[in-house]
Design goal:
- There is one protein chain.
- By secondary structure, the protein is of the alpha+beta class.
- Helix content is 37%, strand content 36%.
- It has 2 domains: 172 residues, 2-Layer Sandwich (Murine Class I Major Histocompatibility Complex, H2-DB, Chain A, domain 1), CATH 3.30.500.10; 91 residues, Immunoglobulin-like.
- An 8-stranded antiparallel beta sheet has the order 4-3-2-1-5-6-7-8. Strands 9, 10, 13, 14 and 15 form a 5-stranded antiparallel beta sheet that branches.
- The radius of gyration is 35 Å and the shape is elongated.
C-alpha cells in the first residue's frame, strides 16, 4: 500500500498538494487539495474501516501537511531556495507472502531522491548531501512527535489497515482481463523491417511477450526491444514488442503472449507476410497489359492483311 504526495510551492504563501492512495495498482482515494479531506475511488474502501478511523486518518494528514509545509518553507527561506519547486513523498508498507511486513517512506525534491526514513531505528538519511537536505533531516530528527507518529503509522497502523483493505478489495485485486494482441510491420528502410506486437487490455500487470522465429524464442539482443508496461484509461495495461528483421529473410515469426488470465495457454499471433501480394498483383496487371497489347496487335495485323488482300483482288479485276 502506498500513499503518494506531490506539493508544488509557487511562493512562500501558496502551495498546491495532490495526494493519492494505492493498494497494489488500485486507486483507493485522493486528497481534496482545498479541504484536505479524503475522497474514495472504490465503494468498498469506505466500508473497510470504521468512520472513526477515517476521521483519525484525515486529522493526522492535516497535522502532517501543515507541519510539512511549514518545514519546507522555513528551509527554503533559510537556505535561499528559489521558488517555484516541487516536493514529493511516498510512504506505505509491504506485506509479504510469509506474513512479514516492511514499512517505507521517501522524500523527493524536484524529481530527485532526497531523504528516506529508516523505520527500524526511526532515523532519516539523505540521498543527496546538500544544505537543504541537512536542514530537513535535522528538522525531522528533532521533531520527535512527527517521527513517533510516522513510526506508529507505518510499523503498526499501515499493515493492520492494509489487511482490512485486502479483505474488502479481494474481488478487485483478483480481477483478470484477457490480453488482445495485434501484429503489424513497419518499414523504416529498404534494408530493415520492424515487426510490432502490440498487446493491450490485460490485467493484472505482469505479462510475458516474446517473439518466436521458426518456433524458437528470439533471445534478447539489439534487434529486440520491448516497451515499459503502460496503463490504459480503463484500468488495464498495454505494451509493445518490436523485432527488427531483414525483409524476405524466409523465416516465420510469431508473437507469443503469456498472462495470468490465459492460465496455462499462450496467445500466439503470427505475422502474415503479405509482401509477395503486391508483386503478384503487379505481375498479373503486366500480363494482362501484354495480353491486351498482343490481342490488339494481332487484330491490327489481321485487319491490315485483309485490306491488302482486298486491294490485290481489286487490282486483278481491273
Amino acid at each position: 500500500m502506498r500513499l503518494l504526495q506531490t506539493t508544488t510551492y509557487q511562493n512562500i504563501s501558496f502551495a498546491n498538494t495532490v495526494g493519492l492512495g494505492l493498494l497494489e495498482d488500485i486507486k483507493l482515494g485522493y486528497l481534496d487539495k482545498h479541504t484536505w479531506s479524503i475522497h474514495f475511488y472504490q465503494p468498498w474502501v469506505r466500508s473497510a474501516l470504521p468512520q472513526a478511523d477515517w476521521d483519525t486518518i484525515e486529522n493526522l494528514l492535516r497535522i502532517y501537511l501543515r507541519k510539512f509545509n511549514q518545514m519546507i518553507n522555513e528551509g527554503a527561506m533559510q537556505m535561499d531556495i528559489p521558488y517555484p519547486f516541487v516536493a514529493q513523498c511516498m510512504a506505505g508498507c509491504v506485506l509479504y507472502p510469509n506474513r512479514t511486513s516492511q514499512a517505507f517512506a521517501y522524500m523527493g525534491y524536484n524529481g530527485q531522491d532526497f531523504l528516506s526514513f529508516n523505520t527500524k531505528n526511526a532515523t532519516w538519511t539523505f540521498s543527496q548531501d546538500t544544505k537543504l537536505s541537512r536542514y530537513v533531516q535535522s528538522f525531522l530528527q528533532n521533531y520527535t512527535a512527527l517521527s513517533d507518529m510516522v513510526e506508529i503509522i507505518f510499523n503498526e497502523t499501515c499493515v493492520d489497515k492494509m489487511k482490512m483493505l485486502l479483505h474488502y478489495g479481494r474481488a478487485a485485486l483478483k480481477r483478470q482481463e484477457l490480453p488482445v494482441a495485434t501484429v503489424f510491420a513497419r518499414t523504416p528502410s529498404l534494408e530493415q523491417l520492424l515487426l510490432v506486437c502490440h498487446v493491450t487490455g490485460f490485467y493484472p500487470r505482469p505479462i510475458s511477450v516474446a517473439w518466436l522465429r521458426d518456433g524458437q524464442e528470439v533471445p534478447p539482443g539489439p534487434a529486440l526491444s520491448t516497451s515499459a508496461t503502460l496503463p490504459n484509461a480503463d484500468l488495464t495495461y498495454q505494451l509493445r514488442s518490436v523485432l527488427a528483421v531483414a525483409p524476405r529473410d524466409g523465416h516465420s515469426y510469431v508473437c507469443r503472449v503469456r498472462h495470468q488470465s490465459l492460465g496455462t495457454r499462450s496467445l500466439l499471433v503470427p505475422w502474415e507476410n503479405h509482401s509477395t501480394a503486391p508483386t503478384i498483383g503487379i505481375t498479373i496487371v503486366v500480363l494482362l497489359l501484354v495480353a491486351t497489347a498482343s490481342a490488339g496487335g494481332f487484330w491490327w495485323w489481321k485487319h491490315r492483311k485483309g485490306n491488302e488482300a482486298a486491294w490485290e483482288a481489286q487490282e486483278l479485276i481491273i
